[in-house]
Structure of Methyltransferase FkbM domain-containing protein:
Amino acid sequence: MANAWKRENNKQPKLLSPILLLLSLSLLLLLFIFFFFARSPSNPPNSTLYVSQVYPIPPFNCLKSPQAHPVVANIVENLKYPFLYSLSDFGSLPDKPHKNIVRFLKGKPFRKPDISATIQQLLEGMKRRNGLVVDVGANVGMASFAAAVMGFKVLAFEPVIDNLQRICDGIWFNRVSDLVTVFEAAVSDRIGNITFYKLVGRLDNSAVSATGAKLAFKSNEEIAVQVRTIPLDELIPDSEPVLLLKIDVQGWEYHVLKGAVKLLSRKKDEAPYLIYEEDERLLQASNSSAKEIRDFLHSVGYSHCVQHDTDAHCTKD
């Protein structure tokens, strides 16, 4: 028995055959590739890979911003590409809550904002094109997220910190941090600072003009704050394609447009589709007028404008 044990103990271990070794290595490589790509963030179907852009002003850092609270967020109804957004206006609690809070408590989605539906309808025909969507006066992101969930890259501008916090909520809820870049700034025709007026409880009516801010809500208290201003031409390089420019700034539209003269002067196939609020009362409160804007747009080639309620849609047709 002792000799038998020695004979067994002296046997050399069998080596893996070359074919089996090759198959094992191939399997390990395939597993590595699978897990690498499974962990890598995928791009939405209509998005474009962009090289990291260096801007003249830093984007707003959501990770360093204090978290807004409380948070009331919900999905939007009746959109082909639904998204969530976070309310900044709660109404008068508890007696007269915002209508979307009432819907939320009833288990209903938020009402579809008109601008969200408009943005998605327009971009539906641009899905094969590369370019930015620029949202000036982003509020809580109802236009920005409508575009981002379709896969479009968005630059959003909003000077009110309360609204910026809600945009940050929406960036997280909709998983679009790779698509939406936010700037804490008011867009204008010059670099600097300007006094901005926001209404307590009505952040959707904040404006550069104190008169414009209180035009619809005269009883609300106003707060004056200093905000940074920047022209779009200083931030968007000539080489960057822009598909759509949306402006809703409570009467400051003319100054925004003047600060984007290079962008708007691009040739027909490269000039953005333009949507801006054209409310004569708000424009006059900021010492401009609808005629002044139309004359300016005509000078840079926007010869075709159609009115949709208080919004004007302009192209170089």
The first strand starts at residue 73 and ends at 75. The chain is about 30% helix and 20% strand.
